[in-house]
Amino acid sequence: MSAIVDTFIAPPCHASIGILHEDEHLLIIDKPSGLLSLSGKNPQNLDSVHYRLVQDFPGCTLVHRLDFGTSGLMVVARNKAINAQLCHQFSQRAVAKAYSALLCGHLSEDEGLIDAPIAKDPALFPLMKICPQSGKSARSRYRVQERFTRQQEQDEPLALTRVRLVPETGRTHQLRIHCQQLGHPILGCDLYGGLVLPGTAHTPRLMLHASELDFIHPVSGEPMAARCASPF
């Protein structure tokens, strides 16, 4: 089997990380779109959320990641003990997450559940695939917030649906591939059909934003309900 080679080079990200909450144990941040969560093996992919934060918060570690193109909420541990406690909450599915997204087209249903197992697709790295035989269980819920049509100068009008997405599991690319499976890919998604329809090719970013994050503070025991409005 041939080795998988990752040739992706991230373009420079000039946007800054927003610090929404800071205490001696953890940070809650707003990640900009176009920034890696972790530095890549290629030295040209050094810039990342972790690389930037560790300059000001030595010893900090990521508890979870967001895709390169996804913006929004992340919780960052400031030491290994806090990281372990937060990772336990994630593994026990005690952390609630919700995302805002723009989907291509107008969804017919106001809400629904996408239940489709996801597996790696080695032949098409870094893509994932829907695979009932070898895939891991994956469930996502969606609720329509708005249906509208965006007028564009040179292209034909673009039908879009704003949705709130809630992943019940945490598979790689889950929301992106599930929306494609629904027949309405996330606008701007280069891997799963979000740049294919007429009028979508010049979309400046992936229209997916982590807008809600709920967990228990591992030291104080207080409920943490982070919110970050969508920038699109």
UniProtKB/TrEMBL annotation:
Its EC number is 5.4.99.-. It is an enzyme of class 5 (isomerase). Coiled coil: none annotated. The keyword Isomerase applies. Keywords: Isomerase. GO terms for molecular function: isomerase activity. It comes from the Bacteria. InterPro entries: PsdUridine_synth_cat_dom_sf, PsdUridine_synth_RluA-like_CS, PsdUridine_synth_RsuA/RluA, RluA_PseudoU_synthase. Residues 25-181 form the Pseudouridine synthase RsuA/RluA-like domain. Belongs to the pseudouridine synthase RluA family. PANTHER family: MITOCHONDRIAL RNA PSEUDOURIDINE SYNTHASE, RNA PSEUDOURIDYLATE SYNTHASE DOMAIN-CONTAINING PROTEIN 1. This is RluA family pseudouridine synthase.
